[in-house]
Amino acid sequence: MIIGIPRERKTLEKRVALTPDGAHKLIEHGHKIIVENDAGLGAHFLNESYSEVGCQIVNTLEEVWKTAEMVVKVKEPAPEEFEYFRPGLVLFDYLHLASMPEVTRHLLDKQITGLAYELVQDRGGHLPLLEPMSEIAGKLSVLNGSYFMLSQHGGRGILPGGATGVERARVVIAGAGIAGRNACEYAVGLGAIVTILDINCSKLEDIKVRFGNQVTTLYSTPAALSRACADADLLVGAVLIPGAAAPKIITREIIKAMKNGAVFVDISIDQGGSAETIHTTSLEEPVYVEEGVVHYAVPNMPSQTARTSTMALTSATLPYVAQLADLGVEKALQTIPEIRGSLNTCNGKLTNKAVSEAVNIEYTPIGDVL
Predict the structure, then answer these.
(1) DSSP string of 6-58, one letter each residue
(2) What is the dihedral sign for C-alpha 206, 185, 261, 294?
(3) Which residues, 6+ apart, have CB-to-CB distance to 79 below 8 Å?
(4) 270 assigned to active site
């Protein structure tokens, strides 16, 4: 199979879909890898690193899309890539279509086979391609939140770990999944007073076992969330329903009741965000102030650690890319449940019910499409 790796177009997105080592593994399987010029430069993977293992370096985005049978990316396609869509082409990346109705329509119109990293789910219920980036985003949410807590960035001027005789910052995390757990780890490491909420008691139990009395765990109800947020210096939104739009559990009233200059970092922005006051920002302009609260809603936070993120991503995605290329997409969809579950669009039909409900486009069961 011919696999194309374009340079990412999202603002300040420096990750690349495949490391040279990952590309080499696919080449050993007999596949051809086409890499756009300087696609890996932001993660410090030079063209020479790819060409040395047998990749073909091409100069333009057009060459990648028009030559490849499967395009493997990090983030959803940018508008300048839509013109290269064509029937039969396979796209494998973080699609997050529940918050991307325009991208969804283009994929359907051009009959792209769209496979979403974030929907690959193993037999144990884990999301192996989402979890590495959720881990990194969770850690970065606290680092970025701490940065914008500084006075010169509009925050309350509070040090997470406090100082001798001075209270520590209060960090509240809504969601105790992979992202929330890693946000918790970093907040505890910085010395903050941490509260984490979730509706899954087993996840809260895991947090309790791991962190003991360093963290307050609360069953999430609207009232409990409202009380916790009112005291927060930093609020992290980390709720997830795989494939679906994130629930707006953080109301405008909750934001209004927060301290002036408090910071809200919404990791859930990829799926539309977990607050009524949230809208997408970028690494170029990461924050805005709403109801006196600094809002941070960057959907590609892991790009800030592009090399770490690229290596973690390749380790997770490579087995699935290899299965798709080795078996062919049709056979992989028929025989590998994890890949079948990641299918979003095929033959002009939308095959994910949660995405269908979020973007208001008709749903067709996968069995009726393949």
Answers:
(1) PPP-STT----S--HHHHHHHHHTT-EEEEETTTTGGGT--HHHHHTTTPEEE
(2) negative
(3) none
(4) yes
**Tokens encoding 191:** 């010395």
What is the rounded CA–CA span in Å between residue 148 and residue 293? 11
Position 13 pLDDT exceeds 80: yes
Task: Tell me what the mean pLDDT of segment 103-125 comes to.
Answer: 94
Angle at 220 between CA 272 and CA 169, to 5 degrees: 85
* Mean pLDDT, residues 264-275 taken together: 94
Residue 346 in contact with residue 368, Cβ under 8 Å?
no
Q: How far is CA 183 from CA 14, 108, 139, 246, 304, in A?
A: 22, 36, 5, 18, 16
Domains detected in the chain: 2-120+305-368 (3.40.50.720), 131-299 (3.40.50.720)
Output the CA torsion 70→71→75→76 (10° steps): -80
pLDDT at 243 over 80: no
Please answer whether residues 182 and 175 qualify as being in contact, where contact means their C-beta atoms are separated by less than 8 angstroms.
Answer: no
Active site residue 96: yes
- Across all residues in the chain, what is the average pLDDT? 96
Catalytic option among 31, 93, 96, 295:
96
Q: Could you tell me the CA-to-CA distances from 83 to 61, 66, 88, 89, 277 in Å, in that order?
A: 11, 10, 15, 13, 33
For 52-96, write each residue's pLDDT tens digit.
999 999 999 999 999 999 999 999 999 999 999 999 999 999 998
Separation of alpha carbons 130 and 339, rounded Å = 14
Q: Which of 233, 266, 270, 295 is catalytic?
A: 270
Q: Count of CB atoms within 10 A of residue 368's CB?
A: 9
Token duo for residue 246? 């994130």
Give the residues across from 368 on adjacent strands: none
Angle at 18 between CA 356 and CA 137, to 5 degrees: 60
Quote the pLDDT of residue 358.
87
Would you say 129 and 323 are in contact if contact means Cβ atoms under 8 Å apart?
no
User: Residue 73: which of 4, 2, 133 has the closest Cα?
Assistant: 4
